[in-house]
Amino acid sequence: MQQFLDRAAIVEVVQNWALWRDTGRWDELRATYTPDGTMHTTWFVGPAAEFVARSSKAAKKGTRSQHFIGAATVEVKGERAIAETRMILLLRAPLQGIEVDVTCYGRFYDFFLRLENAWRIRKRVPIYEKSRLDPVDPSSTLKLDAAELARYPEGYRYVAYLQASAGTRITPDLPTPNSAALARLYEEGRAWLSQNS
């Protein structure tokens, strides 16, 4: 019964993270992480508290994104857990003066820790599977730089292209399907859980 309750509580944190991130509930978002929690994205790697602060600042400037959460699998061992959850990221921003939508499919891979009887994210690393870019107005024409596109892994190619066009430094070597980075992440997850074995 406790395993069922733990899994339900962890899935709730994952779902809350997306809603609180996308609706600007920054205090609640901060509370989904442990005090020393970390976050990895295409545009940021570092302390979760800084991620929340920078997300808040970007939202005030008009950055728009949505995270849709899907099925999750959770493995709990003692006070630690790993959750892997389907997600879709939607971004809207200007590119070459044309408003575009970027859709990115992937998974959140979360290292969870139970603190004071509550589950919190100790580390979050997205696994990027594929992305696409579309003009909001279908009659608009974009000319993308093929060489610039090729610089980014297929899993987050169009997300990175859009963000880099705005001057963002893109995180290299994030996990994508069948990549060495993904193998390392899974190994790290197994080691994380084994510390409670």
Description:
The protein is α+β, with helices and mostly antiparallel strands and 197 residues long. It has a single domain, classed as Nuclear Transport Factor 2, Chain: A. The protein contains 6 helices and 6 strands, in the order ααββαββββααα. Strands 2-1-6-5-4-3 form a 6-stranded mixed β-sheet. A hairpin with a 2-residue loop joins strand 4 and strand 5 (98-115). It starts with a helix and ends with a helix. The mean pLDDT is 94.
CATH class: Alpha Beta
How would a textbook summarize the main sheet?
A: 6 strands, mixed
Element order: H for helix, E for strand:
HHEEHEEEEHHH
End-to-end separation in angstroms reads 19 Å
Category from helices, strands and their pairing: alpha+beta
> What do we call the CATH topology?
Nuclear Transport Factor 2, Chain: A
Query: What percent of the residues sit in helical stretches (DSSP H or I)?
Result: 25-40%
The CATH architecture: Roll
Integer tally of domains:
1
Morphology: globular
Mind telling me the C-alpha Rg? Answer: 17 Å
Mean pLDDT: 94
Question: Into which percentage range does the β-strand content fall?
Answer: 35-45%
Strand order of the largest sheet: 2-1-6-5-4-3
